[in-house]
């Protein structure tokens, strides 16, 4: 395999976006059957939730790794590199392995969506690497998500709020039901969410439900991360992980673009729905700075009006547009003190040019905005695969 072969594979993977999202377990089940059902041979912790599931995955991975285990982690979407989705002890899959395993899944002959195919690659990769645990993030919802074919040792629901309402339902109870359906008989479910729907699904399925209360300290920024840390710690204690490893793990978490200071005065976050923006605003209020300059880019299928309404008070806002078809045209947003600069790199350069030494620049609104920004920051080429769920 050479770079040309790998880039052609990425192009083919990107072409799968034309299939779109097709919730259901039939195709992935058929493919995994042909591939020997590697997911059934793995010890999996399955994590769902509207917000926070990636952070909890990173926390669990860190805890288990500090306890001496070899840990696979599957998350989505990636920010810059396709290989980010598949990590073993925080080492990304090699391009050679990614190319080989994508080819192997294709040879199954089952027509899969992009997310189904990457899920299959993850299971194969983690089995080959002989990991002790897999921390598996749900892509969307839970009930019909491709990851929901697993037989986990524990499940987690981090939060319930409005997102993907066209797929998951327009009420919190409907969304809660979709996520609660990762519950499995005899498998404990941990959640800080007190919700009758989740409780009912757990009772019907014979899954013990543990309400996580309190907080745990972590190096991740934001008060809300303490609740995520408590959820991760609860799962770890169920797995009999030593307290020393839990503490070390929670203070050694790295999860990019989650209230991450890229520079002293540049804060980057993936917040891409109203609840996410609320949490960003809560954190920003704890900081000391002169003026706040926001760079904001959002997808047109999001509640961008609700997101904008809950942004922290700013002096200037720069509206931009990540290079993805789903991006909202910033010209359709009319808000005071705004400047439209569609190119993400130019938007950032302009923000830097008007920011004083004590001012804060906040970049938020979409994972795709965060990914494109990081790619430009690292002088990495903008490959279309960056903009796929």
Give a structural overview.
The chain is an alpha/beta fold and 389 residues long. It folds into 2 domains: 3-250, UDP-N-acetylmuramoyl-L-alanine:D-glutamate ligase; 260-387, Alpha-Beta Complex (Protein-Tyrosine Phosphatase, Chain A), CATH 3.90.190.20. The protein has 14 helices and 14 strands. The chain has helices at 3-15, 26-34, 53-66, 95-106, 114-128, 165-168, 172-180, 196-205, 224-238, 243-250, 274-284, 304-309, 344-354, 367-377, and strands at residues 44-48, 71-74, 86-88, 91-92, 133-137, 154-157, 189-191, 209-211, 260-263, 266-268, 292-296, 316-319, 338-340, 360-364. It has an 8-stranded mixed beta sheet with strand order 4-3-2-5-1-6-7-8, with helices on both faces. Helix 8 (196-205) links the parallel strand 7 and strand 8. Helix 2 runs parallel beside helix 5. The longest helix is centred in the first third of the chain and has 15 residues, at 114-128. The chain is globular. The two termini are 25 Å apart. The model has no long low-confidence stretch (mean pLDDT 95).
CATH third-level topology of the largest domain: UDP-N-acetylmuramoyl-L-alanine:D-glutamate ligase
> Residue-averaged pLDDT, rounded?
95
What pattern of helices and strands is seen along the backbone? Answer: HHEHEEEHHEEHHEHEHHEEHEHEEHEH
Total beta-strand segments: 14
How far the N terminus sits from the C terminus, by CA atoms, comes to 25 Å
User: Which spans of ≥5 residues are poorly predicted at pLDDT below 50?
Assistant: none
The rounded Rg comes to 20 Å
Largest sheet: 8 strands, mixed
């Amino acid at each position: 395999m050479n770079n040309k072969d790998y880039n052609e594979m990425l192009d083919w993977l990107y072409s799968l976006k034309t299939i779109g999202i097709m919730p259901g377990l039939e195709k992935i089940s058929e493919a995994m059957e042909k591939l020997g059902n590697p997911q059934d041979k793995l010890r999996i912790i399955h994590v769902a939730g509207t917000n926070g599931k990636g952070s909890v995955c990173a926390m669990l991975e860190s805890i288990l790794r500090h306890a001496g285990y070899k840990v696979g982690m599957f998350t989505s979407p990636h920010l810059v590199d396709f290989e980010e989705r598949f990590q073993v002890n925080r080492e990304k899959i090699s391009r050679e392995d990614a190319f080989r395993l994508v080819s192997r899944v294709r040879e199954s002959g089952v027509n899969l969506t992009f997310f189904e195919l990457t899920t299959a690659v993850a299971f194969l990769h983690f089995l080959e690497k002989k990991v002790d645990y897999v921390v598996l993030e749900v892509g969307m919802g839970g009930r019909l998500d491709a990851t929901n074919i697993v037989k986990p040792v524990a499940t987690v629901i981090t939060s319930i709020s409005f997102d993907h309402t066209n797929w998951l339902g327009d009420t919190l109870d409907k969304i809660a039901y979709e996520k609660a359906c990762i519950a499995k008989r005899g498998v404990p479910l941990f959640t800080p969410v007190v919700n009758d729907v989740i409780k009912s699904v757990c009772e019907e399925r014979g899954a013990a439900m543990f309400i996580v209360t309190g907080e745990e300290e972590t190096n991740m920024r934001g008060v809300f991360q303490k609740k995520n840390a408590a959820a991760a710690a609860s799962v770890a204690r169920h797995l009999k992980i030593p307290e020393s490893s839990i503490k070390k793990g929670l203070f050694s978490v790295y999860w990019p673009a989650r209230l991450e200071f890229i520079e002293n005065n540049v804060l980057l976050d993936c917040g891409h729905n109203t609840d996410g923006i609320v949490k960003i605003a809560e954190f920003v209020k704890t900081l000391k700075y002169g003026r706040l300059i926001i760079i904001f880019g959002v997808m047109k299928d999001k509640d961008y009006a609700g997101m904008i309404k809950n942004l922290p008070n700013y002096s200037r806002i720069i509206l931009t547009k990540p290079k993805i078809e789903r991006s909202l045209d910033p010209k359709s947003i009319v808000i005071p003190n705004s400047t439209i600069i569609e190119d993400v790199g130019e938007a950032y350069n302009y923000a830097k040019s008007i920011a004083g030494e004590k001012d804060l620049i906040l970049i938020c609104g979409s994972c795709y905005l965060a990914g494109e920004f990081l790619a430009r920051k690292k002088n990495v080429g903008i490959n279309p695969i960056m903009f796929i769920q």
